[in-house]
Amino acid sequence: MPATSAPPAWTSDDLRADAWRPDVLGDGFEARLLPLADDDEGPVVATLVRHRPDPDLRPARAVLYVHGWSDYFFQAPLAHYWHGLGAAFYALDLRKYGRSLRPHQTPGYVEDLRTYDEEIGLALARVRAELGPVARILLMGHSTGGLTLSLWAARHPGQVSGLVLNSPWLELQGSSIVRHVSAPAIHQIARFQPRAPLPNIDPGYYARTIAAATGGEWTVDERWRPTPSFPVRAGWLRAVIAGHATVARGLGIDVPVLTALSSRTLISPRWTDDMRSADIVLDTEAIARRTIHLGPVSTLVRVPGGMHDLTLSARPARERFYAEVTRWLAAYGWG
């Protein structure tokens, strides 16, 4: 949310699986646990967050949002945007992220992006239970969440009405050549030491562009969105590279897809204020080339001045992003 006081003290143990409880985002937001199957680290949960609905209304449309790497849902204005369009808004903190992260877990770690099918399926089931089986549902994903949802939508035709991608991580920085060169080494490490942390090259510049304390507009919970980011581990990166390879072969997603990206990438070892108006995390040109592989109805939008998370960009860029989503919805969005 735009600069505010820090989030109140809150732990995932404050939630239960049988009811909605007040969420860390405060007034207007609720959350509930989604119990998942245990894994080799022990008990696992995901967390579903919702913008509290009007008790007198039952929307016929809904959005389910999934965050990116080393992240969680905190973008309250995004929920307000969808609510203003008459859609019920839900967000999913995936296992081992944000509200769902437990002390015994390796943050963000999975070895196959299909693992997330479990919580995505449970979240959609909960949405349909609340809105009815004929409600139209859009998926929205940012960065790695965009990759995860693209792969999910390709494997689950006929389940949703559309897909909105905010700077989805569809390819490694540079090109597929980089992926082909680096993949064998990553696979070898992951084979023997899947949880081995790889060198952390996060200089903290992206966090600097976001945080209110360093010139940004947003306040986040550092427990759930640390600087530098969670360690990238070989087994997780192998899963992401496998996802990129699947995208490159073509997904054939059966619903309209909107991909929104910044108009430029700026990746540099030195800080500059220009980083506040560019994607400094991903190679947007490589991702733009991948959008034609998503499905037969795929729209690409480039947002001048946009940052990696377009919803966190300076006001002119984020307003342009929301305007482009609204225009796309009028033509394609709800099927």
Please name the fourth-level CATH homologous superfamily: Alpha/Beta hydrolase fold, catalytic domain
What do we call the CATH topology?
Rossmann fold
Domain tally = 1
How large is the count of helical segments? 8
Distance between the termini: 30 Å
Shape estimate: globular
Which whole number gives the mean pLDDT?
A: 91
Quaternary assembly: single chain
CATH class: Alpha Beta
Low-confidence stretches: 3-10
Beta fraction: 15-25%
Which series of helices and strands comes N to C? EEEEHEHEHEHHHEHEH
Instruction: Tell how many strands the DSSP assignment holds.
Output: 9
Descriptive account of the structure:
By secondary structure, the chain is α/β, with parallel strands linked by helices. The protein has one domain: Alpha/Beta hydrolase fold, catalytic domain (Rossmann fold, 3-Layer(aba) Sandwich), CATH 3.40.50.1820. Helices cover 30% and strands 18% of the residues. The protein is built from 8 helices and 9 strands. It has helices spanning 76-84, 117-131, 144-155, 176-192, 205-210, 234-249, 284-290, 315-333; strands at residues 21-22, 29-39, 42-51, 61-66, 88-93, 136-142, 162-166, 257-262, 298-303. The chain has a 9-stranded mixed β-sheet, with helices on both faces. Strand 8, helix 7 (284-290) and strand 9 (298-303) form a beta-alpha-beta unit. Helix 3 (144-155) crosses helix 6 (234-249) and helix 4 (176-192) runs antiparallel to helix 6 (234-249). The longest helix is centred in the C-terminal third of the chain and has 19 residues, at 315-333. The radius of gyration is 19 Å and the shape is globular. Mean pLDDT is 91; it is low at 3-10.
